[in-house]
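Entry:
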Amino acid sequence: MVPEEVIKELEAAVGAGNLSTDDAMLYVYGFDVSDVTGKPDIVVRPGTVEEVAGCVKVCAKHKLPVIPRGAGSGATGGAVAPTGGVVVDLTRMNKILELDLANLQVAVQPGVVIDQLNQALKPHKFCYPVIPGSDKMATMGGVIANDASGMRAFKYGTAKDYVLGATFVMPDGSVVPFGCKALKNVAGLDLLRLFAGSEGTLGIMAEFRVKVLPLPPSRGVLVAYFEDLETAGKAVINTYQAGIVPSAVEIMEKSALEVVNKYRPQAGVKVAEAMLLFELEGDLDFVESQARSIGYVLDALAVGDRQFSADPAEAERLWSARSAVGAATSVLEEGHNRVYEGEDICVPLTEIPRTLRKLRELRDKYRLGTVIFGHISIGSLHPAITIRKSDERDWKAMKELAAEIHAWALSVGGTVTGEHGIGVARKEYMAIMHPGAYEVMKRIKRALDPDNIMNPGKIF
């Protein structure tokens, strides 16, 4: 129970109408899309940097946990409060503050949704290229705090690559601006990259200045079907060796093709051992030239079953199969639901074929529905495990399956998370993956947040 004194101090910081202690409201804030839960004691909804700072100062004074939260679309429990505390909901701060397109940048608040930003940029022929699969609900604050990426990470990088400046609220409530408006800045330690990806454990990023890029004039999608996984893996590597840089290369293994066929038959996918989707961007002549070059790569591998289109409507139809796969996991088996564990591994490119086969073997071993897809362009794979959530045996088998998936990724030189982050769900692996570096991370955490109030229980 939080003392009445604290509630009154937080009300003074954000206004009585922007604070909740109601049980029903607190329950809603107790989840993200993972199976991690935790009800906060209070939810506050600041509208300005000053209000964020005011809330954090109160929490620092009383040594209360502070849990920054955006849309709650994360998959690791990063925005929930396993031990209670104060959730700072940043979704009221949803304004695009400045379109400084002459300098290739925009200033935004953390509650701006990625798709909202791109819709505002589209008439000006610009885009923010970091587009996770949840871009229609994920917020800028969450994306940058988790260093998210998505399908176009091979060509465009991750969220941290676009942050030029930010205003941070530190664990003591002080407000510190980092960065500048220049497109390049190497003055001192790279604090922007330290905070991007810190998952709210070092402070709250309350405003951002991010780089944007010109919107490509044309887009094409090439789809190719494969009768074996090894050839699909080779096709990606051979494409790069041919000097071709697609904006995205996605893989859908047989399980993913089957569920999409069932969930969205209008996408018109065939069922094969695997399907690759290559996205190409640029002027129309360049897009078509790149598609022909990929065709030569596929010819050399004797892959003839393919389709290409640069027509916007047709390209979107081809791409829709990949867009639907996350939702399609719900129709894999009646009564089964997706759980977000073991689902975000990233492996070296040369290990992709072996990893795909290993995922199949593990799926068969544990007899759990597992839909396999991912951003093969960077070796990021998403084995989406489905279980009967009311069955304790399924939970036990899922935990064992996830542990084996993680162990495999580490054994081939990969990681347990390519883009969704550590949060609560994967923190046990930090000391395994990076024992020496993890100690350095903990020292930084203690130096900046000695009372461990910022998103405690996440990463560390």
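Residues 332-411 form a domain with the Alpha-Beta Plaits fold (CATH 3.30.70.2740).
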